[in-house]
Model the fold of this input.
Amino acid sequence: MSQPFRLGVSYTSTVWPDICIDFRDDHLLLQANAPLDAMSSALWGGGHMRATHFINWKVPLTYRCEDPTLMMRDQLTEWGYPVADSIGLQTAAKITHASIEEEAGDRYRMICCATAGTRNSARAGKARETFSAYRCGTINIFLLMDAYLTPSAMINGIITATEAKAAALQDTGIVDEDGDAATGTTTDSIVLASSQNREYGEPHQFAGAATTLGNAIGRLVYKAVHEAIVTQGEA
Done:
């Protein structure tokens, strides 16, 4: 079991103590001591930016907002977080059941935090009903690492993480509305953030499954997403 918020409210990484994760009633706050270089599909702060605060906000199942970006910004301000240095995701999954995996290895220290609800599971690559806008993220993955990566390696790492997420969904038997194996949900989001620590020397140029870094990404994401999925229905 690696779900510290089912009993506690704060977690400090054992492999990278500069990272703390706190449960704050309606959201999780992942905080770094120094800005991290991030790439993400986040609602707030998405794309490429530097950030110290990473938020996973649990919104109610009845959530309906015509401007979720503005709503996220206002909520960050209400919480007192630095808006310009924050990346914000939204979810309807249980944040108490967030799963955390971490390890240190070949020129990296890595932390993965995932929440996973699968009510709107879907299979990419097939025709389905679509919408111009949709509700907030359901499987949210945060990958924070003390490492030095090229920009292409960061994107490669997001690919590897996505493949691992899909594998976890398939191994837990999650299917879409037609009964086909799901590859995700319709509203997933991911953040990959790195310290870009030059003390490691040469950067990681790749993060595919056969590299030390990519293999770690895949394993940690798989374990975190798998656990978050299978425990989502538990109290």
About this structure: The mean pLDDT is 94. The radius of gyration is 17 Å. Residues 151-171 form the longest helix (21 residues).
